User: Fold this.
Amino acid sequence: MSVFERYLTLWVALCIVAGIALGEVMPGLFAVLSAIEYAKVNLVVAVLIWAMVYPMMVAVDFASLGHVADQPRGLLITLVVNWLVKPFTMAALGVVFFQHVFAGFIAPADAESYIAGLILLGAAPCTAMVFVWSQLTRGDANYTLVQVSVNDLIMVFAFAPIVALLLGVTNIPVPWETLLLSVVLYVVVPLAYTFQPVWNSACPGMANFNVTSYADVAKPELKGKTIASDITKSLTYTNTVISLKENNAFDVSKMWKDLKTTEPIVEFRTEPKMQMVITCQRPFDMWNLSGRVYQNVINKPELAKTLKVGSYKEGQVMLGNQAAVIKGAPHPNAGKLLIDYILSVEGQTVLKQGHHIPASSKVEPEMRDLKGGFRVNYISPAQGVAQTEKALQVYRQMFNEEP
Assistant:
């Protein structure tokens, strides 16, 4: 391990001491910083947490969910502990210690805050540390990825309801606005992403290459150097195609035809594609995550000079996690109330404050350059299935893939 990793505990301790000292020396500055908040969520802390968790969150590959059944026993234990044991035992410990054992030493208002903090901590699995612990114990990296992906997906939907339940049981007012904003800021936002063209300028013939349009993916100099994203194995890619087609960004059939002239490798997993780009096996990938580039540059800073990320003038598709009330859900009415709130003007305003683009036309996007240029379409499940099948049919015909 490096010196930084070996003495990580020392650095954490020094940071705690430094934080306390600075708070005593410059209380005015910290009062200003603490006032930068919305719905009792400090936005300065939010930025710092993003910086901490983003490198870990981009490592989450939801394609790994296809391997959930490979080793079910370990995953089942993790899910039971994370979602059926830990949140409730943390709440119980909070009540025992802060309302009874230490009741004579702590003011009731402070005790209530400490209990709420324990509930919030207990309901949120620590994604970053799971990766660290797995690496320190030389664990199975792929199985770790499956565990983290499943728990992160559950956290998007389960965190707010579990915290609300436990706060209610302990007679603490439920701050719904704070809960929803916290989920958006710390769970959904780090998982949101957009597909962009990525290439390696250090590879032969790529020094002067650039991408500004989908027409560029079929440049003659790219023959034998491209990667085609396999939309048959990823609904995310399929949704990208559908979204761009709905906005008349390009002729999908022509784009696949042009890309095929470059004799591409067909792949859907973002990290293997990233490694093909880095090693020059295939120096150009039409769709990858800017977060993947960031992750690899963090590990190898020298790649910052050669890995390039472009954009398509026809449009970029921003994707994230979706919420729905599943058929047969035990509490569908509660789920519907939550979704109704999210879609309300108040709920959309909360999402906007978290730098999400609101889906309601009644709430203007925070980013002014998106006005008139951003589009949100609502379609029925039947329409979605039909559009997906059509997009897959065009792709399969072009690349001669069987359904």
Observations:
- Residues 72-101 form the longest helix (30 residues).
- Residues 366-376 have pLDDT under 50 and may be disordered.
